[in-house]
Amino acid sequence: MDAYKKAKFRYYGLALFEIEIIYDTLGGLFEVSEEQLSTENNGYISIVEIEFPVPFGEFFFQFFTMERWHKIKGIIKEMKRRRGKKGIKVYLGFYGISPEIKSHLIFLIINGNNRQFEMGIEKIEYLVDIIPIHLKTLPANIEEVTYYYDETDYKWNPRSAKGENGLNYSFKNS
Question: What does DSSP assign to residue 152?
Fold first, then answer.
C-alpha cells in the first residue's frame, strides 16, 4: 500500500480487546502503524490517538463506512464508560478537510463526564458541512486545525490553527 494509505494508531492504558477492535477496524481498509505511548507524566489513565490517512468529509464516511465509524465510536465511548471519572484523552486526526482545504484536522476530547463525552464523540460526523465554513477565513497556508468539544456549549469549536513559518492562530468562540 502507498504511504498515504497508512493509518496511525497510538495508545496508552488500553485493554488488549480495545486495541484489537481498533486495530482490526482500521486494518480492514488501511495499513496500520501501531505504537504504545510512553507512560511518563501524561496525567491520563488512557490515551487513544488515531490518524486517518484520508480527508474528513462525506468521502471519509462513505469510504470508511458508517459500520466501521460506529465501531470506533462505540469502543471509545465504552472505554470512557469503563474508566469513569479517570482521565482519558482521545485524539482523532484526518489528513485534510476537503479537496480544497489540505490542513490536518484534529478532534480533541479530554475526559469530561460520561454523557458529555459520548455526545462529543457522537457529534463528530455532523461537522462535515460546518467545518469548511468555520475555516474559510483562515489563510491558505494553514497546516493544522484543532477542534475541541466544549461541554458548556455542547458543541465542537475550533481552538487553534498552525500555519507555515510557525504562525499560530486562536479562535474566539461565541
Answer: T
pLDDT averages per 10-residue partition of the chain, 174 residues: 74 95 95 88 86 92 95 94 86 84 87 82 92 79 89 87 82 65
Say how far residue 156 (Cα) sits from the centre of its chain. 12
Instruction: Give the total residue count for the chain.
Output: 174
Q: Where are the domains of the chain?
A: 50-169
| 148 SS3 class | strand
Give the span between the Cα atoms of 88 and 79, in whole angstroms.
9
Q: How far apart are CA 105 and CA 142, in angstroms?
A: 10
Question: Nearest Cα to 32, choosing from 18, 19, 46?
Answer: 19
Q: Please state the pTM of the whole predicted model.
A: 0.89
